C-alpha cells in the first residue's frame, strides 16, 4: 500500500512545475507622534542600513498637514524602502532643539543613527521620492 502511494506521488509530481520563490521587500515601518524612547530606538539606535525619515511637525502647521500623507505614501513605496518617524515639535521640544528645527515642516533623513540629509517645507511625492533615492 505504501509503495503504491509513493509511486502515485512520484508520477503526479514528475510532471509538476518546479516551485518558484520570490523575495518581497520588507514593509516600511511608520511611527507617529513618537516619544523620546521610541525616537532613540527607531532613529538613533537603528542598526539597519535603511533610511529613516523623521518628520518634524506641529498640529497647527498647514504645510505639515499637506506633507504628512505624501511622506506616508513614500514610506509605503517599495522603491523608497525607508521608515517614517513623526515628531510633534510641541511635545518633544528637546529633540526639536537638538536638531535645530527652526522651520516646519522639516524632514531629516537618518541612516544608522546619523543625520545624512534634510529638507525644509512641503514637497510633492516625486520630490520626496527623489530626495530618498539620492541618499540611499
TrEMBL record:
Q: Which UniProt keywords apply?
A: Disulfide bond, Electron transport, Redox-active center, Transport
**Cellular component terms (Gene Ontology):** cytoplasm
Which residues are in the Thioredoxin domain?
A: 12-136
Task: Read off the Gene3D superfamilies from this record.
Answer: Glutaredoxin
Q: Which GO terms describe its molecular function?
A: protein-disulfide reductase activity
Q: The organism sits in which domain of life? A: Eukaryota
Put simply, this protein is called Thioredoxin-like protein
Amino acid at each position: 500500500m505504501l509503495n503504491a502511494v509513493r509511486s502515485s506521488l512520484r508520477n503526479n509530481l514528475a510532471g509538476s512545475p518546479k516551485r518558484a520563490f520570490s523575495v518581497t521587500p520588507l514593509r516600511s515601518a511608520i511611527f507617529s507622534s513618537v516619544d523620546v524612547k521610541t525616537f532613540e530606538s527607531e532613529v538613533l539606535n537603528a542598526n539597519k542600513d535603511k533610511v529613516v525619515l523623521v518628520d518634524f511637525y506641529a498640529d497647527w502647521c498647514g504645510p505639515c498637514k499637506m506633507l504628512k500623507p505624501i511622506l506616508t505614501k513614500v514610506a509605503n513605496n517599495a522603491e523608497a524602502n525607508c521608515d517614517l518617524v513623526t515628531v510633534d515639535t510641541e511635545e518633544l521640544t528637546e529633540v526639536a532643539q537638538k536638531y535645530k528645527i527652526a522651520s516646519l515642516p522639516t524632514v531629516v533623513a537618518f541612516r544608522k543613527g546619523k543625520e545624512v540629509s534634510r529638507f525644509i517645507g512641503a514637497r510633492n511625492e516625486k520630490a520626496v521620492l527623489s530626495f530618498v533615492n539620492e541618499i540611499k
